[in-house]
Amino acid sequence: MSAPTTGAVVRVPFAELQALLQAILQRHGCSAAVAAVLAHNCASAQRDGAHSHGVFRIPGYVSTLASGWVDGQAEPVVSDVASGYVRVDARGGFAQPALAAARALLVAKARAAGIAVLAIHNSHHFAALWPDVEPFAEEGLVALSVVNSMTCVVPHGARKPLFGTNPIAFAAPCAGLDPIVFDMATSAMAHGDVQIAARAGQRLPEGMGVDASGQPTTDPQAILEGGALLPFGGHKGSALSMMVELLAAALTGGHFSWEFDWSGHPGAKTPWTGQLLIVIDPSKAEGERFAQRSRELVEQMQAVGLNRMPGERRYREREVAGREGVALSEQEWVGLQALVG
Ligand SMILES: NC(=O)C1=CN([C@@H]2O[C@H](COP(=O)(O)OP(=O)(O)OC[C@H]3O[C@@H](n4cnc5c(N)ncnc54)[C@H](OP(=O)(O)O)[C@@H]3O)[C@@H](O)[C@H]2O)C=CC1
Ligand SMILES: O=C(O)C1=NCCCC1
Fold first, then answer.
1. What is the annotated quaternary arrangement, including any partners (predicted)?
2. Three-class SS string for the chain?
3. Mean pLDDT over residues 125-148, rounded?
4. Please, which of 140, 143, 172, 190 could form a disulfide with 136 given CB 3.0 to 4.6 Å?
């Protein structure tokens, strides 16, 4: 989640940024419907200071669309496969429009049965994962999502990369407070943050990755050029990353992180994989008590000295952006103007 480090800061109203991103995405090959979903997602990440997946990613969307690797016009096909199961074929398009297409059915099933699963395959996810779960918690539901990405992480104890950076995001309602949300790569660092550090000429902390010969390195460029990331927390993060491969790819019918070949599409950046969401209606078990119990948990964590909840930094940045506008570096702002042409 590195912040931009160069240039003066420009503040832009959220709606203006979203409209600009939508215009860029449409100009470079997305349908209006797809561009609207991605623009909202990306502008939200920038607003919340989630810089590794904010406007930093727009040139990647543009080059990927130009390469023909992703279908920016794809219309997802939603299948109602069982009482608690929805399947979506994203048809080679982005995962977020696939989620949007299935969302109402997924929520209806979760409310009827207490739990429902959404399995998306044939999809590209190039964004932060919290925007996919947080809205469910705002409606009183608990949501968990996983997505796999592209081979760049060495499984614990192995010699070569295999897994993606494979994030896990979770959201739950909390009485009187913002939803409890966490969203984390299962690698020691998100790939986007390695790219940002490389661009800024910064070293990484120790323990993030290895170079092309498998030796530990703090040089982000060495990780990007033939090296690899490590899982967070050794064998534990590695096991979670393995779980993400199983849930997001094997269970959905999507590709494992190493199974797609984008070498024929220079400029392609978006992993062609799968995504799983599990949505639970806590009222089925706990009535109205779940959100209150969440609140009790937060209060107990604070009572023992916790001074920052996961998600809290984003909510703080969101509040500031609401008052002052979304922050971008001047360089990013100028770059976006150039892309709208
Ligand atoms: N689409 C894809 O394939 C991929 C996407 N990603 C995305 O990259 C993004 C960044 O991931 P990552 O770098 O692992 O995230 P971070 O390590 O920055 O943060 C992980 C979580 O921990 C919370 N957190 C951070 N610091 C603290 C602290 N000191 N105390 C309490 N909580 C804390 C964060 O909350 P807060 O948000 O408030 O800082 C967040 O919920 C994610 O949004 C992820 O979805 C990553 C890999 C692949
Ligand atoms: O930051 C990462 O790690 C990734 N983000 C978008 C998709 C590829 C991996």
1. Homodimer.
2. CCCCCCCCEEEECHHHHHHHHHHHHHHCCCCHHHHHHHHHHHHHHHHCCCHHHCHHHHHHHHHHHHHCCCCCCCCCEEEEEECCEEEEEEEEEEHHHHHHHHHHHHHHHHHHHCEEEEEEEEEECCCCCHHHHHHHHHCCCEEEEEECCCCCECCCCCCCCCECCCCEEEEECCCCCCCEEEEECCECCCHHHHHHHHHHCCCCCCCCEECCCCCEECCHHHHHCCCEECECCCHHHHHHHHHHHHHHHHCCCCCCCCCCCCCCCCCCCCCEEEEEEEEECCHHHHCCHHHHHHHHHHHHHHHCCCCCCCCHHHHHHHHHHHHHCEEEEHHHHHHHHHHHC
3. 98
4. 143
pTM: 0.97
For ligand 2, whether the C-beta of 163 sits within 6 Å is no
Q: Which ligand is nearest to the CA of 223?
A: 2
* Beta carbon of 64 within 6 Å of any ligand 1 atom: no
- Model confidence over 281-331: pLDDT tens digits? 999 987 779 999 999 999 999 999 999 999 999 999 999 999 999 999 999
